[in-house]
Design goal:
single chain, about 70 residues, mainly alpha, 3 helices
Protein backbone atom coordinates (compact mmCIF):
# COMPACT_ATOMS: atom_id res chain seq x y z
CA UNK A 1 0.00 0.00 0.00
CA UNK A 2 1.08 3.52 -0.64
CA UNK A 3 1.27 6.30 1.85
CA UNK A 4 -1.55 8.21 0.15
CA UNK A 5 -5.15 7.07 -0.09
CA UNK A 6 -6.71 6.65 -3.49
CA UNK A 7 -10.01 8.22 -4.55
CA UNK A 8 -11.94 5.04 -3.76
CA UNK A 9 -10.87 5.29 -0.12
CA UNK A 10 -11.97 8.93 0.05
CA UNK A 11 -15.34 7.98 -1.43
CA UNK A 12 -15.83 5.12 1.03
CA UNK A 13 -14.96 7.40 3.94
CA UNK A 14 -17.50 9.99 2.76
CA UNK A 15 -20.15 7.28 2.46
CA UNK A 16 -19.49 6.15 6.04
CA UNK A 17 -19.55 9.77 7.20
CA UNK A 18 -22.89 10.41 5.50
CA UNK A 19 -24.29 7.18 6.91
CA UNK A 20 -23.25 8.16 10.42
CA UNK A 21 -24.74 11.61 10.16
CA UNK A 22 -28.01 10.24 8.76
CA UNK A 23 -28.23 7.62 11.54
CA UNK A 24 -27.58 10.24 14.19
CA UNK A 25 -30.22 12.60 12.79
CA UNK A 26 -32.66 9.69 12.51
CA UNK A 27 -32.01 8.82 16.17
CA UNK A 28 -32.66 12.42 17.25
CA UNK A 29 -35.84 12.57 15.14
CA UNK A 30 -37.16 9.27 16.52
CA UNK A 31 -36.27 10.24 20.08
CA UNK A 32 -38.19 13.49 19.70
CA UNK A 33 -41.12 11.78 17.96
CA UNK A 34 -41.68 8.86 20.32
CA UNK A 35 -41.16 10.54 23.66
CA UNK A 36 -43.86 12.48 25.48
CA UNK A 37 -41.54 15.39 26.25
CA UNK A 38 -39.97 17.97 23.99
CA UNK A 39 -36.33 17.26 23.24
CA UNK A 40 -35.58 20.93 22.62
CA UNK A 41 -37.25 22.01 25.86
CA UNK A 42 -35.41 19.38 27.91
CA UNK A 43 -32.00 20.21 26.47
CA UNK A 44 -32.15 23.98 26.14
CA UNK A 45 -34.72 25.33 28.58
CA UNK A 46 -34.47 22.75 31.38
CA UNK A 47 -30.74 22.12 30.80
CA UNK A 48 -31.17 18.36 31.28
CA UNK A 49 -27.58 17.16 31.57
CA UNK A 50 -28.55 13.47 31.79
CA UNK A 51 -30.29 13.62 28.42
CA UNK A 52 -27.33 15.42 26.90
CA UNK A 53 -25.03 12.66 28.19
CA UNK A 54 -27.27 9.96 26.65
CA UNK A 55 -27.25 11.72 23.28
CA UNK A 56 -23.48 12.19 23.49
CA UNK A 57 -23.11 8.48 24.25
CA UNK A 58 -25.13 7.57 21.18
CA UNK A 59 -23.00 9.95 19.11
CA UNK A 60 -19.81 8.32 20.38
CA UNK A 61 -21.24 4.83 19.76
CA UNK A 62 -22.08 5.70 16.16
CA UNK A 63 -18.56 7.07 15.74
CA UNK A 64 -17.01 3.88 17.09
CA UNK A 65 -19.16 1.69 14.84
CA UNK A 66 -18.28 3.72 11.77
CA UNK A 67 -14.58 3.77 12.69
CA UNK A 68 -14.61 -0.02 13.06
CA UNK A 69 -16.36 -0.38 9.71
CA UNK A 70 -13.77 1.79 7.97
CA UNK A 71 -10.84 -0.21 9.37
Amino acid sequence: KTMFMNWNTYFETLVYLATGIILFLLFIFLLDKFTSWSLEKELIEDENVALAIVIAGVFIAFGLIIAAAIR
